[in-house]
Amino acid sequence: MNLEDFRFYASMGGHYVTSGTNAGAGTSAHLKRKSFSSREDAKEAVINALKLLELYTEPEPYQTYTVWVDGVEVTDYLLTLSQANRVSQKYFQDGYPAEIVNTVEEKQ
Predict the structure, then answer these.
(1) Does residue 42 sit in the same domain as residue 78?
(2) How many domains does the chain have?
(3) Does residue 88 contact residue 98 with C-beta atoms inside 8 Å?
(4) Residue 78, C-beta contacts closer than 8 angstroms, at least 6 positions apart
(5) For residue range 51-93, what is the model confidence (pLDDT) as tens digits?
(6) Which of 17, 18, 36, 58 has the CB geometry, 3.0–4.6 Å to 80, for a possible disulfide?
């Protein structure tokens, strides 16, 4: 999914964005639209959403990662890399150094 998958249009005093290709008045895509104060605000919101989607989408869905903090494994089960990054960031924000370990690489 990228910016070209969205349609931006002005209608009734607002600027709208929808992911439907046929977004005329009364269509289901039109009813699922989101209103913004400007076309630029609409594009910025879509770009930010796409960045988040990319950040939280794991290209390799294997759950082979764990997180260690101060010599203690803090996860109860294996995680994807993006999940492990989120757990690690939480500990880091609380002032604890966290290490992400790929269990597959360790066995090789």
Answers:
(1) no
(2) 2
(3) yes
(4) 63, 64, 65, 66, 103
(5) 777 666 655 567 889 999 999 999 998 988 888 999 999 999 9
(6) 58
Evaluate whether 1 touches 15 at the Cβ level (below 8 Å): no
Q: What pTM, to 2 d.p., does this model score?
A: 0.43
Residues 46 and 17 in one domain: yes
Do 8 and 50 sit in the same domain of this protein?
yes
In the block, tokens 């989607």 appear at 53
- The domain of 31 spans 3-56
Instruction: Say if CB 35 and CB 16 are below 8 A apart.
Output: yes
Contact 60, 82 (CB under 8 A): no
User: 6: which 2 tokens?
Assistant: 């969205």
